[in-house]
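Input.
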Amino acid sequence: MKQVGEAKGLLHLLTKKLQQKFKDDLSASPQLFNPMSPYDVDLPIQVAEDVSFGSQFNQPKDLPADFSSVDLSFLPDITQDNKEQNPSKGGHEMQGGLDGSVPRNEDSGIFMEESSSSYPHATQPSPGEPGVCPPLTPMTPMTPVTPASESSGIVPQLQNIVSTVNLACKLDLKNIALHARNAEYNPKRFAAVIMRIREPRTTALIFSSGKMVCTGAKSEEQSRLAARKYARVVQKLGFPAKFLDFKIQNMVGSCDVRFPIRLEGLVLTHQQFSSYEPELFPGLIYRMVKPRIVLLIFVSGKVVLTGAKERSEIYEAFENIYPILRGFKKAS
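Output.
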């Protein structure tokens, strides 16, 4: 029992000494256990290189009044033409970039759209003012402008003219087919008499209503002359035929540009007006809007023009298409 009491006394004495020592250490350095102080307060160790490196950025630099001494070598070079055209604009953009403001681009419609949506009743600037882009309108299909006004020196030749005329009387087609020369009539096959003459070399389709279609003439005069000859034949067969409402319905011309053409490139560039299906038809079909002519363009350089009602439309259409074909000439 005596030994146990001595042990307890020693333990009690040792505990007091440890508590005293702990209080002394705590009073000597109270900042280590201060919860409000940052952890790096009592870490004064700092490398000399870090100090010198940080001082370069911490020291404030005074910007010069003019920016002639500022190093702008990292910017792209500006050509002399752009400097002459926009001397003030470049200075304002540079000043705005150095001030940290966002430059406003007049060509982009960001700020214009924002202002117009915020103030719908505000007056919009007129399109005539400089630096203002007019509103865009949807484009309608139209014939492309010829690249150059060069004369081709090629005159398309008329190959066929289709005309119509009204004889203004009812006709007995079987009687005409039996008594007229060079006439054939098969009502099961076609409901018109097919009549031909040698001069001018043409063919006529005569219907029982008195309407007649004349094809095969090479000029307007030949077409009219052939139609009058057919009307005279019908008159001689005993019908009161007249010659009314003669009109040319279609003219077909053709020519050769004398060089091969890249039809694939042409259809890609003018796909709005042309179609090209070589597996179905070897020619490119080009539908011109003004004049309203349809052109068949072949890789060999041959061109067929159809759909005209006047000779001048054939010539105008070819003069419009010739510079385009020159742009797609195959390299020999």
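Residues 37-60, 87-98, 100-120, 138-143 have pLDDT under 50 and may be disordered.
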